[in-house]
Amino acid sequence: MALLKVDFYSNYLQRNVILTAVIPVDKMDGPKLAKRRQGPYRTVYLLHGLFGRDYDWIDKTHVVETAEARDVVVIMPSGEDGLYLNKPEINEWHGKFISEELVDVTRRLFPLSRKREDTALAGISIGAYTALINGLQRPDRFGSIIALSGAFMRDRIIEAVESHSPRKRRYYERWFGDLDTVIGSEKDYVAMIDRFKNDPDLPKPKFYGACGEHDNLCENNREVVELLQDADFDVTYWEPEIGSHEWPFWNAWIDCALDWFAPGEMKPSSANVDYSGITNLRPPDEGKFVLKDND
């Protein structure tokens, strides 16, 4: 497994950016590893959360080992809290950087598959929010979207718009730009999902999500799942009874998500945690999530 640090100039961001890439070009064969191949590789573009950086995934999870077992390339950009969203009013194009430039550059650098079904956009927390937004904007590029503990912020943005607190409004404007323009725009996942209802010819990415019951964002994740199901997306969602908004949860579930994206019998070869126990009970209807009755 090759672990590469890349520094390149972004035309959209008008500065140099950093990314970490995991490429399974030199892996050893073994009973729990996929047969070594030369590419083109299936690829997951993996976004960190707020105040994070590209190397968080290397420091805090064993995603390298799972990617090697699955024969998957993982591309981890450092978002520098730009939230990967476009802010045209101040000429910032973090969304276009993720969905267009990053994909183009990495495909030129590495032997990556150009097929949409081999390309996924994934993230945790606020990175999951923007993975959903950018994945829905470019369904021609991303065949899968993975959202772990998604910080789906639409309701909070509405509250900030209606709030009389300038401080609260400025807090959200730091990441979302002009709040008066968010609802109904490309930053609004409700509006983006409705776009697929109104245009049946748009290809729908498959969606994989997970959020622990002890996470205070759990209800927001359920709402997004319902919206996607109502729009007839292919949705797989897990809501385990354990886990909160924390790295131990994401460490386990990024492995489960990669298993979903690149299915097979291969497992990480030396991980000290057995995740199979937390995913052995599948939801009804072939993996589709059915909301629990809270009464």
Automatic annotation (TrEMBL):
Keyword Hydrolase: yes
Segments crossing the lipid bilayer: none
Record-linked InterPro entries: AB_hydrolase_fold, Esterase-like, Mycobacterial_A85_antigen
Pfam families according to UniProt: Esterase (PF00756)
Gene3D superfamilies reported for this sequence: alpha/beta hydrolase
Keywords associated with the record: Hydrolase
GO MF annotation: an example: acyltransferase activity, transferring groups other than amino-acyl groups
Key word Hydrolase present: yes
Protein name: Alpha/beta hydrolase-fold protein
Species per Swiss-Prot/TrEMBL record: Collinsella ihumii
